[in-house]
Amino acid sequence: MQVMAFSTPSNPEWRWRIVNNAGELVEESRHVYLSIEAAVTDGQQRIRELDIQDLSERAHPFRRGARR
């Protein structure tokens, strides 16, 4: 799993988001942070608290289907 931090033009404060290896959202912070560093640090702490084993598989967007 990975932590990413994001902000938007309408809400310039930072928040963290945890995504699994397939890119699916696991959890998102409700709290806002003044810096990207603070958001990522708290997100990493939350991953440790969740203690979830990520068994998802990364998507392969460029993989071709079976040949005919």
How would you describe the overall organization of this protein?
This protein is an alpha+beta fold and 68 residues long. The protein has a single domain, classed as Double Stranded RNA Binding Domain. It has one helix and three strands. It has one helix at residues 36-50; strands at residues 2-8, 11-19, 25-28. The chain has a three-stranded antiparallel β-sheet with strand order 1-2-3. The radius of gyration is 15 Å and the shape is flat. The mean pLDDT is 89.
What are its keywords?
single chain, about 70 residues, alpha+beta, Double Stranded RNA Binding Domain, 1 helix
Compose a concise summary of this entry.
The protein has one helix at 36-50, and strands at residues 2-8, 11-19, 25-28.
Topology:
Elements: E1 2-8, E2 11-19, E3 25-28, H1 36-50
Antiparallel strand pairs: 1-2, 2-3
Overall SS class = alpha+beta
The tally of strands reads: 3
The ordered H/E elements are EEEH
How many domains? The number is 1
Mean pLDDT over the residues:
89
**CATH architecture label:** 2-Layer Sandwich
- Biggest sheet: strand arrangement: 1-2-3
**Largest beta-sheet characterization:** 3 strands, antiparallel
Spatial gap, N to C terminus: 36 Å
Supply Rg: 15 Å
Q: Please report the number of helical segments.
A: 1
Strand content: 25-35%
Measured as a percent range, the helix fraction is 10-25%
CATH topology: Double Stranded RNA Binding Domain
Low-confidence stretches: none
Q: Tell me, what's the shape?
A: flat
Name of the CATH class: Alpha Beta
